[in-house]
Amino acid sequence: TGVAGAGKSATLKAIKEGFELAGFDVIGLAQSGIAKEGLAAATGMPTRTIASFLRPSELTEEERAKEQRAH
Q1: Could you tell me if 29 and 53 are in contact, meaning their C-beta atoms sit under 8 angstroms apart?
Q2: Contact 32, 48 (CB under 8 A)
């Protein structure tokens, strides 16, 4: 959490890029669908809600297709 403009998204984007350079696949997790979309837009990383990450069988067909394209 933090105030708008504090640099949360920029920090996450830099961390993501560092891990990718080290050879890791990185995904973002967010509490809600709206937050998931914001995180994806701000960082360029594939994102999921925490619920869909914990219960992958509950993904929609569209989410499954996006997930497979990201890997």
Answers
A1: yes
A2: no
